[in-house]
Amino acid sequence: MYRVFVLGDIPPAERNSALYLRIQQWSPFAETGRHAVWRDETAQVWIWDEAKRREASEAFGANVSRIFPETVLRERLENRDALRIVSCTEGLDAQVWKNGVLAGSRWWAELPHPDGWKRFLLAHDLNPTTLPPVFEEIPWLDSPWGRTSESGSILSPRHERLWLLIAAAVFAFLVIWDGVTIWRWRHAGNLMAERIAALTQEVEPLIEARTEATKYKDAADRLISLFSYPTQLQLMADVAEKFPGKDVLLAEWRYNQGNLTFTLEGEKSDPRYYVEAYQKLPGFKDVSAEPGRKPNQLEVKMTVGSEK
């Protein structure tokens, strides 16, 4: 599975920790293997079922220390937008590149069904009538591309207690190194053990509380975003109000958090009328209209503003 996370609103020093939490929330697997490549504030993330991957490795007797998605071992597209299909070792990888970032990736065992290809294009704001490009045979690279963030990042919340203990152990070693007698060595070791135990007890609840707070905040933000847009019933009423007559029918309706696309069917299908009519309505912007799949159809797209 592949997904892009944009973390520009998070300080750079905290982005690896934030990405770790986002992956945990997104992943459907009980045990998640992952590979992330950063480009500025954007993380390009692949995940897989680590338990099944490990079972497969053991079945074939393979001792694997690092896992890379096949995509990062083939040439990427730098600083340009493109849609391409790459032939993989097994199957095909459909890729959407935007300014050097892999904005979308979808694997198929064989040439996708037209409906599946159309859904892939719509998911990435591309023209659904675009035909699949010719498959490309991309040579293997000597090393994977991109600045990576390993799953065992030192900034991930699950490693904070480990690093706390390591830091305390290093400090204890320095104290012992400066000691000149066995008594001083034992005394310093006892004091350090007590400090480690006390510090661990103090810090552990704070780490757990912060992790829980972050999880609930993200959940609350998602719920708030769902209620910040008008209901679809209200949108349908606003759209139908501008129909020029009873001979115009609503043939298709697609709405996803602020992006609305619908298809009209009827004799009166002047695109200019609908663009002007809906552009004047409060909350509608970036209205466009173009002929649909049938001669008497018109596809209208727009952005719906959230309610304040």
Instruction: Give the biggest sheet.
Output: 4 strands, antiparallel
Low-pLDDT ranges: 151-160
- Largest sheet strand order: 1-3-2-8
- Beta content: 25-35%
Order of helices and strands: EHEEHEEEHEEHHHEEHEE
- Which overall shape is indicated by the principal axes computed on the Cα atoms? elongated
Average pLDDT confidence is 84
Share of helix among residues?
25-40%
Number of strands: 12
SS class: alpha+beta
How many domains?
A: 4
**Gyration radius, in Å:** 27 Å
User: Number of helix segments?
Assistant: 7
Separation of the first and last Cα atoms: 35 Å
Descriptive report:
The protein is an alpha+beta fold. It folds into four domains: 1-74 and 140-155, no CATH class; 79-132, no CATH class; 157-227, no CATH class; 232-304, Gyrase A, domain 2, CATH 3.30.1360. The chain has seven helices and twelve strands. It has helices spanning 15-26, 50-59, 114-123, 160-178, 182-227, 232-241, 271-279, and strands spanning 2-6, 32-39, 42-49, 82-87, 92-98, 101-108, 135-136, 147-149, 249-256, 259-265, 284-291, 297-304. The strands form three sheets. It has a four-stranded antiparallel beta sheet. A four-stranded mixed beta sheet has the order 6-5-4-7, with no helix packed on it. Strand 9 and strand 10 form a beta hairpin. Helix 4 (160-178) packs antiparallel against helix 5. The longest helix has 46 residues, at 182-227.
